[in-house]
Amino acid sequence: MPDAAAPESASTTGEFLTRVQNQDPLAVRAPLRVLAWLSFLAEVIIIGTGGAVRLTGSGLGCSEWPLCTPESLVPIYADQGVHGLIEFGNRTMTGVVGLLALAVLLLTLHAIGGRRLLVRALWFALGGIVLAVVVYIATTTLGPVLGAALMSTALLLSVVAGAADSLRRTTRRRDLAVLAWVVLVGIMAQAVVGGFAVISDLNPFIVGFHYTASLLLVCVTAAFLVRLNAVPGPREPAVPTWFSILSHITGLALAATIFFGVLTTGNGPHSGDANIERHGFDATILAHVHSWPGYILAALVLTLTIASWVQRLQPRKWLLVLVVAILVQVGVGVWQAREGLPELLVGIHMVLASLSAATYTVVVLSLKRPAQRSADA
Asked: Does the pTM of the predicted model rise above 0.70?
């Protein structure tokens, strides 16, 4: 008589259900797809508006934070002129970016967990707003700046707590939930960093960090778009090992190029305000240092592109986009250096850097593909 099959343990059953749920295709409705694209575009646009603030000398167009002036939330054109409008426009864009990220998050939670995850997230949002208001009222005697900072911190901590609770309860497409939460938390933290940039009279390191964080959020929103259409479940390499290693080395060259580019801009003539002068690193020397990893990056990307098309590897189309973006970046960089760093070219260079980083993110995510399931799986 054959042996009876042993009953599965509760933990084994739970692991099996989790695995099945993670492999179920997600029904992505049009609103989520559209809002995800709008969120990505808004993250790119805010880099452009932030660059405009700096390049037009409008960094202190709103001299206060969170208010624009000591008496007004909005700029007064008679007092601050166009600089106040440019700075306030960038602050307003932060709100647009945040609302889009919130909408993407809520639709994502509803898609992967239904009403249960959505309602819990809304309760955490309501609790965070109430807590932030209470903190602000309790700290008004400390001054508006410190009160606003503490209020923002309370709201940010509430969102982090909501993210932890949501991810703990997510058993399906956790990758999408993580990316959506990271974007929202990052935007809220960015608003606080922007406030510190104003309070510190545009400290170049804070301003540089502000830009870098915005660039990373562009990459995260790009990753969300890729994963939104990806087949869930285990993944396996889609390229040879040497190609994967060289791709990650290229990422290091890209990071070094952006890092030295941020340092160069932070010590160049565009400080964000006509009355602020930078006395730190030598911008002329930094411009040359910035170009070295840039040329290495261009060579590496060109090598990867040729190799991928010769061997017909999966990332070849996105590598073609990346090599064009990098070559344009190099051309703009050389052009702006020879023309004495005109504002428009510097702004284009900043936006193209974010698009190059986003394209590289897509390339890295293309290095793997869904694992081939065995016939008896």
From this structure: yes
288: left (phi over 0), alpha (psi -120 to 50) or beta: alpha
Check whether 370 has a pLDDT greater than 90. Answer: no
For residue 42, pLDDT beyond 80: yes
Q: Is it the case that residue 15 has pLDDT exceeding 60? A: no
Tokens 């189309």 appear where? 317
**What is the model's pLDDT at position 276?**
63
Would you state the pLDDT for residue 30? 84
CA pair distance 82, 335, nearest whole angstrom: 28
Q: What is the C-alpha separation between 206 and 203, in angstroms, rounded? A: 5
